From TrEMBL:
Lineage, opening ranks: Bacteria, Bacillati, Bacillota, Clostridia, Eubacteriales
Reactions catalysed, as given in the entry: 2 6,7-dimethyl-8-(1-D-ribityl)lumazine + H(+) = 5-amino-6-(D-ribitylamino)uracil + riboflavin
Lumazine-binding repeat feature ranges: 1-96, 97-193
Protein name: Riboflavin synthase
Documented EC number(s): 2.5.1.9
Pathway linked to the protein: Cofactor biosynthesis; riboflavin biosynthesis; riboflavin from 2-hydroxy-3-oxobutyl phosphate and 5-amino-6-(D-ribitylamino)uracil: step 2/2
Species: Faecalibacterium longum
Pfam families attached to this UniProt entry: Lum_binding
Length: 213
């Protein structure tokens, strides 16, 4: 489990590509502290398992499934990536529940300044947008953000200067692809709701209790 609070921005040191997979070596500092082989680190919001440790970096396998569902395939040597270690059981929960399992890829449609804030508008498929709600949580490249507006083709977030400075958002431009993970709670609720529920019924407290919430 992660929180979407980025600990540092690392850089891609090397990429060894196989036929349908890859091994990423990521240059880092903060996330190496206390990390052991087998630990999980989120790279641009994708949970990866550390397979090798070096004094200035770590290496992780990227499966075929991960390359197909994320924007990791577009990384090159020197690319900036957001990094976060898995949250310890006694850690502070600063963001929201993040699994590190990317739902898909979005594309930055617009970036605009609003006084001190910076707005990012992301276009995404309807399969992702169905779980995006105004004032709800969304993870963009592993960054926990609040949805400020939802449109038929995408959504927007308003970021504070600190978030932009401390993540790779300051190196993102219009047209760039980003990894998206929606709030896991909504997906579980949808899965647990009986498919035969009449359309006129609405989500109620009693229904959630029957489903285990």
């Amino acid at each position: 489990m992660f929180t979407g609070i980025v600990e540092e921005v690392g850089t891609i040191k090397s990429i060894n590509r196989g036929q349908h997979s890859a091994v990423l070596t990521v240059r880092a500092k903060t996330v190496l502290e206390g990390t052991r082989i087998g630990d999980s680190i989120a790279v641009n919001g994708i949970c990866l398992t550390v397979r090798q440790l070096f004094p200035d970096s770590f290496a992780a396998d990227v499966m075929h499934e991960t390359l197909n569902r994320s924007a990791l395939a577009q990384l090159t040597i020197g690319s900036a990536v957001n990094l976060e270690r898995a949250m310890p059981a006694n850690g502070r929960f600063g963001g929201h529940i993040v699994a590190g399992h990317v739902d898909g890829v979005g594309r930055i449609a617009n970036i605009r300044k609003d006084d001190t804030a910076i707005w990012y508008t992301i276009h995404a498929d309807s399969a992702i947008l169905r779980y995006v709600v105004e004032k709800g949580s969304i993870t963009i490249d592993g960054i926990s953000l609040t949805v400020a507006a939802v449109e038929p083709t995408g959504f927007s977030v308003s970021t504070i200067p600190h978030t932009v400075r401390q993540t790779n958002l300051n190196q993102r431009y219009k047209g760039d692809f980003v990894n998206l993970e929606t709030d896991v709670v909504g997906k579980y609720i949808e899965r647990l709701l009986p498919s035969e529920t009449p359309k006129q019924n609405t989500l109620t407290k009693e229904m959630l209790l029957r489903c285990g919430f």
